[in-house]
Amino acid sequence: MKKLSISLILTALVFTSLLTGCSGQNKTISLPEATQAQYTDKNGIGYNEQDDGTLVISDFSDNKENVEIPSDFKGKKVKSVGRSSFKMSKIKSVTIPNGVEKIDDYSFAFSSSLEKVTLPDSIESIGTNAFSGCAKLTEIKLPKKLKTIGMYSFDATGLEKIEIPKSVKKIDEYAFAECHSLVEVVIKGKNTEIAETAFNTSTEVKITAPKNSTAEDLAKSKGIEFTEM
């Protein structure tokens, strides 16, 4: 498993192919590039305007370690953090403002120094590989309106515990795979759809959830220690 993790990181660093599936899925895909920005603010954050007049963050061209994303730019609301926009950046902390609804695929992937992420309650979805490979990210508070946690979204992070809000409808494949420090998972929803591989190779995981929940079913099928909420 260690050899597979190293391969995954090295391939990302040379901008060729990314070997995802740290948990046994040998699927090769491209690591997408960020989209070229229409506008860039003084902090190096790039934006593109959408059809509805709102903005999506497209890239980041600064070496700042602590980033606070503004809620608007040029009088237009920021609605999403775009695909690959902060991937492999040197940031240590990021604060995302209220009003942002989506963290897109690969947004912060392989930002190896990232330690702190502050998410607003307006976030509804976290995309594929959004925080994958952020090994120093040991904790994160998920938003109250969050509905979907995408494939590999927190794969190979340093998370030690995570609380999944009741609002979450789906935890996708390998979402928390290969999180070797992850020991405490609280899943508040009784009917949350949880992929069989959601916690693959996160061997120390213990799940707390409502009785007769989908989380309890998963725990029993995977041999994970379960505590009734």
What does it look like?
It is a single chain. With 229 residues, the chain is mainly β. Helix content is 9%, strand content 28%. It is built from 2 helices and 19 strands. It has helices at 2-13, 214-222, and strands at residues 17-20, 27-30, 39-40, 45-49, 55-60, 66-68, 72-73, 76-81, 93-95, 102-103, 116-118, 125-126, 148-149, 161-164, 170-171, 184-187, 193-194, 206-209, 225-228. Strands 3, 4, 5, 7, 8, 10, 12, 13, 15 and 17 form a 10-stranded mixed sheet that branches. The chain has a 4-stranded parallel sheet with strand order 14-16-18-19, with helices on one face. The protein starts with a helix and ends with a strand.
Shape: elongated
Strand percentage: 25-35%
Q: How many helix segments? A: 2
Low-pLDDT stretches? 1-29
Query: Got a strand count?
Result: 19
Assembly level: single chain
> What is the gyration radius calculated from CA atoms?
17 Å
List keywords for this structure.
229 residues; mainly beta; ten-stranded mixed beta sheet; 2 helices; 28% strand; elongated
In short:
By secondary structure, the chain is mainly beta. The protein is built from two helices and 19 strands. The protein has helices spanning 2-13, 214-222; strands at 17-20, 27-30, 39-40, 45-49, 55-60, 66-68, 72-73, 76-81, 93-95, 102-103, 116-118, 125-126, 148-149, 161-164, 170-171, 184-187, 193-194, 206-209, 225-228.
